[in-house]
Design a protein that fits this description.
It holds the Pfam family CP_ATPgrasp_2. This is Circularly permuted ATP-grasp type 2 domain-containing protein. Residues 80-454 form the Circularly permuted ATP-grasp type domain. With 496 residues, the chain is of the alpha+beta class. The chain has a domain at 349-411: Dna Ligase, domain 1. Helices cover 32% and strands 21% of the residues. The chain has helices spanning 26-36, 40-57, 85-109, 114-117, 174-187, 189-194, 203-213, 236-246, 283-286, 302-307, 320-323, 325-328, 331-339, 356-364, 390-402, 485-495, and strands at residues 60-62, 71-73, 76-83, 148-155, 161-167, 224-227, 249-251, 256-258, 263-265, 272-274, 276-279, 312-314, 346-347, 351-352, 369-373, 382-384, 407-411, 417-422, 425-434, 436-439, 443-444, 450-453, 469-475. The strands form 6 sheets. Strands 3-23-22-19-18 form a 5-stranded mixed sheet. Helix 3 (85-109) crosses helix 13 (331-339). The N and C termini lie far apart (65 Å).
């Protein structure tokens, strides 16, 4: 018997063959009506205009694995994803709750380790490659380790969202959230007059305020910089963009030096002390005196100043242990342990392959599951069972058997789809969502997120590094439909 094709929740519930908006979700009805009246060639023209403008600005990303190694544009889709105020309220509260617990976990794991003593987290976490013993006993301002966190969310039904993973090291993508919004406002200004879309352009100021808030207590006007590996890094555009938007300096390791338990920046007017470093360099490369001795990207002696309280690093060294996939499994228990609350957002059901029962089940159902390396990221080192060939399945089976503890497995989720403009027209493509949680003076999110879309038909891999694209995410300030044209004209007349 032939298998029925899998059913996926469509964010718009759009029946492309329908002549009426029946069956379209309430928050999309007005947009759907607008979309029906826009010719395909006009949408495609807008897409080409966006591509030209993005290319001029230099918004590029390296698609790893390409032979030419060239920087290229991330595909941008001109059809937005829309979230209601109620949906966003749940996602926002759940993401904040999660990041609060993860920050408490990081403080605990580098201090008293109560969660290990309570038997909730195995002591093997201390052997994780992302656990940095150099951070043990180090007190960081406000006990905040993950100042910027990206929480990856996926949806499987109208009411069900799952947390796919946490990003606490050097999470990227927020520049695309901001630039996608600017582009949509340029391409379709009429929609922003008609929909109550919450703004996101204040993100850089919120970020800067939070970074200043975690400077040492005796510093009244802290100097904040963005530390980048340099122009050859795949996310360099974002580093430069955020520095420019915050009005602070973009520096590389060679621009900084350590003296008398302080970090200084070289300027044309002489050395200037730096108080907070928003670093976009991985732990291994940040200080060659402590980690990778061959690193030319970091600042010699930086960790010593950091440990002694002479500078704040955002995110803190050692945050990687909290976004490791082996830790992910325990986050719901962390929330209960540290906050005394039930998780507002669920984890994807996960098999720990270090456990014999989970390993046996995974090997028996490999063609049905997604298997990920515990310390992998960016869509690399993973197997999507239903899409894998027999040879790929067998090769991965051997890798798992040789080191079961290096992998976890999860069911292949029916990721929601969103109408997307592709060469053939408008078609459903799978999406995820990455809101950015900022921790400093407060813990908050701006009402928007990076929405990644798998541009290939049937693909569940949305990562930009694997060729995925992006969409603008519209969070509605009120759950209302677009006003009538007469009301719009009246409002514009009043404004005039």
């Amino acid at each position: 018997m032939k298998k029925s094709p899998p059913q996926f929740f469509n964010e718009m519930q759009l029946d492309l063959a329908a002549s009426s908006p029946d069956g379209v979700r309430e928050i999309y009805k007005a947009y759907h009506q607008w979309l029906k009246n826009v010719p395909h060639h006009q949408l495609n023209s807008k897409r080409m205009e966006a591509e030209l403008l993005f290319r001029r600005v230099g918004i590029t990303f390296n698609v790893y694995g390409e032979n030419d190694g060239a920087e290229r544009l991330i595909p941008f889709d001109v059809l937005p994803r829309i979230l209601s105020a109620k949906e966003w309220g749940k996602l926002s509260a759940g993401s904040i709750q999660r990041v609060k617990a993860l920050n408490m976990f990081l403080h605990d794991i580098y201090h008293e380790q109560h969660i290990i003593k309570a038997g909730i987290m195995p002591a093997t976490i201390l052997a994780n490659s992302q656990y940095r013993p150099e951070m043990f006993g180090v007190d960081v301002p406000n006990q905040i380790y993950a100042h910027i966190a990206g929480v990856d969310l996926v949806r499987t039904s109208e009411s069900q969202f799952y947390v796919l993973e946490d990003n606490l090291r050097t999470p990227s993508g927020v520049s695309y959230m901001l630039e996608d919004r600017k582009m949509m406002m340029r391409l379709f200004p009429e929609l922003f007059r008609q929909y109550p879309i919450a703004p996101v352009e204040h993100y850089p100021q919120v970020l800067l305020n939070n970074l200043r808030a975690v400077a040492q207590t005796n510093v009244h006007e802290p100097t904040v910089v963005v530390l980048s590996p340099g122009a050859y890094n795949s996310a360099y555009f974002e580093h430069a963009f955020l520095a420019q938007q915050m009005g602070i300096e973009l520096v590389e390791g060679q621009d900084l030096f350590v003296r008398n338990n302080a970090v200084y920046m070289r300027t044309t007017e002489g050395p200037q002390r730096v108080d907070v470093i928003y670093r976009r360099i991985d732990d291994d490369y940040i200080d060659p005196l402590v980690f990778n001795a061959n690193s030319m990207l970091g600042v010699p002696g930086l960790l010593s100043v950091y440990r002694n309280g002479g500078v704040t690093l955002a995110n803190a060294v050692g945050t990687g242990v909290a976004d490791d996939k082996a830790t992910y499994i325990h986050v719901p228990a962390m929330i209960r342990f540290y906050l005394g609350e039930e998780p507002l957002l669920e984890n994807v059901p996960t098999y720990e392959l270090s456990k014999e029962e989970d390993l046996a089940y995974t090997l028996a159902h490999l063609d049905e599951l997604v298997v990920k390396e515990v310390q992998g990221s960016g869509g690399y080192g993973m197997l999507v069972g239903p899409a894998a060939s027999k040879q790929e399945l067998e090769e991965f089976r051997l890798r798992i058997i040789s080191s079961p503890a290096s992998y976890i497995a999860q069911p292949t989720l029916a990721l929601s789809t969103c109408p997307t403009l592709v060469a053939e027209g408008i078609a459903p493509r799978h999406v995820d969502l990455r809101p950015f949680v900022l921790s400093g003076k407060t813990c908050s999110l701006v009402p928007g997120a990076l929405c990644r879309v798998a541009m290939k038909e049937g693909s569940l891999v949305v990562n930009s590094s694997q060729g995925g694209g992006t969409k603008d995410t519209w969070v509605l300030e009120e759950d209302v439909a677009m006003p009538s044209k007469a009301n719009i004209n009246q409002a514009e007349a009043v404004l005039c």
